[in-house]
Amino acid sequence: MTTADAIPSPDVLIIGSGIGGATIAASLAPTGARIVILERGERMAPAEHDRSTHAIFREGVFRPKEFWLDGDGQTFNPGNYYYVGGNSKFYGAVLTRYRREDFAEMELDGGVSPAWPFPYEELEPWYGRAEALYGVRGAANEDPTEPPHSTPYAHPPVPDEAEIAEIRGRLRAQGLHPYSLPLGVDLPAWLAGGDTPWDAFPNSAGGKMDAETAALAVALAHPNVTLVTGAKVERLETVPDGTRIEAVHVERGGAREIVRAGLVILSAGAINSAALLLRSADARNPAGLANRSDQVGRNFMNHNATAMIAFDPRRRHGLVYQKTIGVNDFYLGDGQGGRPLGNVQMLGKIDGHILKANMALAPFAALDWMAKRSTDWYLMSEDLPDPESRVTLKNGGIVLNWRRSNMAAHEKLVARMRGVLRSIGYPVVLHRTFDRRTPSHQCGTVRMGTDPAIAPLDTFCRAFDHPNLFVVDASFLPTSAAVNPALTVAAQALRVGDHIASGDLAA
Q1: According to the lineage, what is the superkingdom (predicted)?
Q2: Which pLDDT score is estimated for 2?
């Protein structure tokens, strides 16, 4: 669609083309309903710097041209990406299920992780469909914490590089249970574009199963689905009594348009979706849309995360991508009778430029020498919902006040993993905990539940206050768990899509 063409008024308007928006579009496309997807960004085209760690990590060529405020009023450039496919264009493609225990109340060092409004078994069939849609490569029999699968993975795991296969063996010798990460990666297709990792690299030429290459491609194969790029939604407008969404106000190519739709599905990401609902306040909804509970923007969660570098100066390796194994031995307990600590998985392979971006004063040559002799790990612990950890607005701009929780458990996980890595032959183990300005696994700001007094959305992500509004992205998550959220968002999007198709769009 060109800028000159007016955006059509559809049956279903989806705001955002990330994992949530693209997946529900794929679910609804076969109904024949007229569907329009609005994406504020453009399609990512291949460019010479796509595989350049210097350009990506040191120059920040893909970073957004916007700034938010943190809880102390300091400006920062957020790690949000505005392209067709959303943040998934840069994700690590780890598509893992929440554990069955994550759906129940769980006691952590930092407090209680609340139960979901339904058990794992309710979402399980859609997990299998999401794995098929995103072409997940995996093995369900390696991790003792893996929940039951009613369908097998369609593809075998992405193969370990030789050095990683050796590490897998060393971890097993220590009594641990390293498992193959479930990955949405076609390895030969990815490596055809260059010998680099995929984690944090843009998927401009294919190889990663992201929201655009997997779900959106399925949706757009249907003639009733239209994608409009460069379309930034400014606010939603309700009918005079403040109930249903009547219009969506869009800025595109310097002009403003109004789009009307029978159903509106908001999938702009946990921070931007909450901000848009707050920005759409009106006389009947003075605290923002879907906000009778005063919970929109609250309960922001973001994994407590640490990068860990295990360094052996005696061993130079030839690793390219590295990211194929994880460890969940500390996920449901600390291994010594204590409470859960979190998940461990490999990072995409770092190099000197990636280290230099975070250690500006160190000589590049020394950093690159170290990177060629290290393996690199990513540690995640659950962040608990807190009403005061929230997204708000100031002069129309976003304020993100993330109040970290459960950090004592995360520090224990860091200590345990440091010991593990030393025990398998790494004399030097360094780590760096991500600061609160890195919203990498943002979730929880428009959570679902059964009580409209404490949750903006019902269990099918419909706003209690507006029957023709759904919020389908990581906003709906009641808890962050301690694994990557993308597959859970996709599974719920498929579940919600089936619900809409059988009700709101049924003939």
Answers
A1: Bacteria
A2: 47
